[in-house]
């Protein structure tokens, strides 16, 4: 599925039709990510709930979401994994990897959680 | 809000607040508050992210159970309040007054509507609560082995609302549901959506102990009980009020309605159960009553050929175990009854005829026979139609009908004779102007009756007699028709049954060739030509039904005796070793009679010719007595009487009898009727042919049949024993019955007698060790 992964990654990178803006981190470390609600909801039960119509806050058809307790670089990894199903962990600093483990647990991305766990062991 | 502070106290950890506890309390307060906002439909002010993270942190810090219990507490609280503030006020007025104030169950409908709203609100809220507590579900509920929060919500709804301990919600709900259904049964329009919502709700809730749905545990049985009662009462009312067709339509409608009801708002699992109830209460319990309804039940339907109603009954009654059996036996009884009536008209007719048996009436027994067969055929037609149009050609019914026909047809001991006479009637020349196709189809139907006859050998005997008369008297409509009929019999019974009949045809053909040869022979011969045209048919004695041993004797006039002698010499010259016996009772003659007015050509039987020729030697006015005629002609008494009757008491009175009367008695005097006149030059004197046998003849036929059966039985025994060499008594009996039953039903006593006769004649012996075993002696 490498082609599929690559194509989906390009959707994430050059998103011109995104409908979710996620503000990640707090204060000066905060960063905005652009994403597609369909993909997020399909890939994570957390986002399935979070982005369901009864919870979302919309402005001009754009969903605004904020996730203050996760660092942007960690969220970046999560997003990549959500879109592509792949993640290269060897290049990442180990403290980020630990944070990734915690975040993937919170966001109930079990696949990623298991993947990181195996990597750490 | 103050009232809601109370439950918080319950879950607040006791004393000694450390920082972790404080943190938890703080988080929990906010979460509990949020759930309350969700309940108030204020979710838009809440942040999913915060609430989720809040719950996540609690579970992460091992406070899952506190969170879980807290949530339970808050939801319970809420539902309690819903019960008090929404559900209870919507209770319909109960008791007798409800039917007055809410004749259409409006109060009940409103109650269901409220419950629908409450349920929808609850499930919507629970979905949102489930979202924010997703981490609790995934991490805590799984390990603590407690229901997921949504299921918890269902359980709480069940216990707090549907089965509330504090308020009679359950009673009201069940009552209203049953009442709504009752109203709908009574043709009121109800709001099915509300009923369906409540039913769906009950279907979604699970009973903790049975693991079945609350629908099944709380509702279904009550529904079935009230339905049973409802239809028990209705069944009694309907049978009292409606006739059978109307009743069945009502039942049809009810069955349909209940099916629709289940489909629209009950559970499919209820479908067979409610169907059983309606079938039991409206069909099973009233089967007999409906079948036996005086002017509209099964028999009147049959009588009036109400095919639609019969079809409906067949379909409807087929739903219950005994239904078709009851119908079958009622119809069969009816067939037997009708058959009995047909048989009775015949016996009453024949006995009436027996009273003046020698009347010479043209209405011979044959009409009775033909009428009997026609009536049986009509009956058969009628029930074939019923079978075809109303009973979907049900095999079981067909079998039962056949048994009924077989029963009454064989009750009439004359049926083999009657059926043969009926065929005779149809195959006789120049009758009724039926086309060949019509005759063929009648004969086809007759074959179906033939199938029902148990004593096919008796039929064969009569058929041979009737066929012989048709052939010899030249009355057969056509060879094709005769052969067609024999073909049909062959299909039914095999070639053995018809070889003799076919042999009769051969004799006819060969005889006609023989006659051609005889004429040539006479032309060429130097012999004196006979003074009359002689036509002889040579019959093979084993094929034809004539009795050789008691061959009819008769003193023929000298010219005829001489002609016969000439033929005999001719024939025996060609076929040496044969013996010819003259069957003078079967012949006919054309003679010329001179009367005062004119001459007539008379077509008469051989016997009549013999009688008439006696008067040639007499003076005008000189009479002959019965005794004289009898003595001189030597014609057997019964034949003599019959022929004298034809000559003196029928349409053409060639002879005058003294004293007058329809009976021939000893001492009667006969005179040649010189004054005889008739418009036609050629006159056929009807011989009383093919009529139903008299009692004496019947006895004789019977004896012949019995005799033939003895032979057939012995032949079968020998055939079997020759093949098996040794055989046990019962097995032998069974095998013999099997071989013979296509011709007649042999009774074991008869077979046993034949076995004994065969032992006596040393065809068989009893085995030395076992007297119940026979050995074949080659």
Automatic annotation (TrEMBL), chain B:
The keyword Ubl conjugation applies. GO terms for molecular function: ubiquitin protein ligase binding. Pathway: Protein modification; protein ubiquitination. Residues 1-15 have a biased composition (Basic residues). Keywords: Isopeptide bond, Nucleus, Ubl conjugation. Pfam families: Cullin (PF00888), Cullin_AB (PF26557), Cullin_Nedd8 (PF10557). Residues 414-648 form the Cullin family profile domain. It is found in: Nucleus. GO terms for cellular component: cullin-RING ubiquitin ligase complex; cytoplasm; nucleus. GO terms for biological process: apoptotic process; mitotic cell cycle; proteasome-mediated ubiquitin-dependent protein catabolic process; protein polyubiquitination; regulation of gene expression; regulation of primary metabolic process; response to stress; signal transduction. Gene3D superfamilies: Cullin Repeats, Cullin, Chain C, Domain 2, Winged helix-like DNA-binding domain superfamily/Winged helix DNA-binding domain. Residues 1-25 are annotated as: Disordered. This is Cullin CUL3. It comes from Rhizophagus irregularis (strain DAOM 197198w).
